[in-house]
Amino acid sequence: MIVQKGALFSALKALVRVIDHQPSIPALGHVRLEADGQQLVLDATDLTTYMRATVPCDGTLAACLLPGKSLLDFVKPSNATDQKSPIEFQPVEDGKVVVADDGALVTLTSALAEGFPLRPGDKLALRDWLAAGTWSAPQLADALKWISMAVGTDTTRPAMTGVMFTPDEIVGLDGHRLHLIKMPGISGGPALLPGSAIATLLRVLPKSGEVSAERAKDFVRFRCATGDVQWEIEAAAMTDLHYPPFRQVIPAEGTEAFSTEVDREILLHAINRMLKPKGSSRGVRITVNGAIKLERDGDDGSTSRTVPVVSTTHDGPDSVIGIDAGYLADALGGCSDAVIARFNDAFGPIRIDIGEGQVAVIMPMRL
């Protein structure tokens, strides 16, 4: 079986990141390859995310499991011209596979293909899979990157490590902050998908074209293409977990004590300067009156910056609120020119409206 080096390398580069490098099942440390004469199908999984890449090929290859990292290192192109070089796979005795690249050879030992777990969705009938959404790839990538910033990493609170898709919203939260975008989500009811699966999807989303999703029972499968590589990412919805009632966390528009509109770029620049040098405290005091004053105390002394506002409904004495500057910088990562921050008291959540249908909520912190 012969396959183009560039396409194979692109597929393996993404698949290797899914491989469990300390697998409980030996097969999970490998990539599964199988070719039918026209297409080479490569699979990898950590039992949470199932990733499949399909690339054009010439010839057949019986299903085999090869060490993904070793194969990736061998087929890495040396330059742009080398990407078009052919890679040949030839099974030999004792379950080994010889991989040839313009005179260079490597012999890899194949694990038993029968030990590789099939995608759960493949056990369902084709009629069970229904279209669940279609997006512009760049638009979905921008949305998921921003949402993922707020997704939790604390495994003791597993529900918060997922991304919530509703038919018209996508949400991420970690108990300290929330990011929500109003946009077409996944049809068929709410689906809480593992954050790791969304991270995998983000790594292969193309810079143009479309992304589609299908849904069958509790499984969701995303499809997209980059160059000659067709991608499928499958994950099971986290149905056994209770996602926090996120709409209750978002202060309703109009219930704030006061609101302040500010230029996003100016505020973001000031916040990023407050976060330097690296390792400095992320806690920042925000003083709001006719402007926004940012203050940070650290070993290098006190630092402050004042940001002008476009408009504000603030009236009376200064309002002082402690906030994690990193969370605020992440929230301001949207694309709108102006943002509206809605404040309550020093202990109430801050709602930030970023353009149309994009909302962040940040809980204050004690300094």
**What ranges have pLDDT less than 50 throughout 5 or more consecutive residues?**
none
Q: CATH homologous superfamily of the largest domain?
A: DNA Polymerase III, subunit A, domain 2
Oligomeric category:
single chain
| Secondary structure: helix percent | 10-25%
Overall body shape: elongated
- Beta-strand proportion: 35-45%
Mean pLDDT: 93
The CA-CA distance between the termini, in Å, is: 63 Å
Structural class: alpha+beta
The CATH C-level name of the largest domain is Alpha Beta
Q: Which sequence of SSEs, written as H and E, runs from N to C?
A: EHEEHEEEEHEEEEHEEEEHEEEEEHEEE
> How many beta strands in the DSSP annotation?
23
The biggest sheet amounts to:
10 strands, antiparallel
Number of helices: 6
Annotated CATH architecture of the largest domain = Roll
Structurally, the number of domains stands at 3
Instruction: Indicate the radius of gyration in whole angstroms.
Output: 25 Å
The CATH topology of the largest domain: DNA Polymerase III, Chain A, domain 2
Set down the secondary structure blueprint:
Elements: E1 2-4, H1 5-15, E2 30-45, E3 49-67, H2 68-75, E4 86-91, E5 96-101, E6 104-109, E7 130-136, H3 137-148, E8 162-166, E9 169-173, E10 177-182, E11 191-194, H4 195-204, E12 210-216, E13 219-226, E14 229-236, E15 258-263, H5 264-274, E16 283-288, E17 291-298, E18 301-308, E19 311-312, E20 319-324, H6 325-331, E21 338-343, E22 350-354, E23 358-362
Antiparallel strand pairs: 1-3, 1-4, 2-3, 3-14, 4-5, 5-6, 7-12, 8-9, 8-11, 9-10, 10-23, 12-13, 13-14, 15-19, 15-21, 16-17, 16-20, 17-18, 21-22, 22-23
Helix pairs in contact: 1-2, 3-4, 5-6
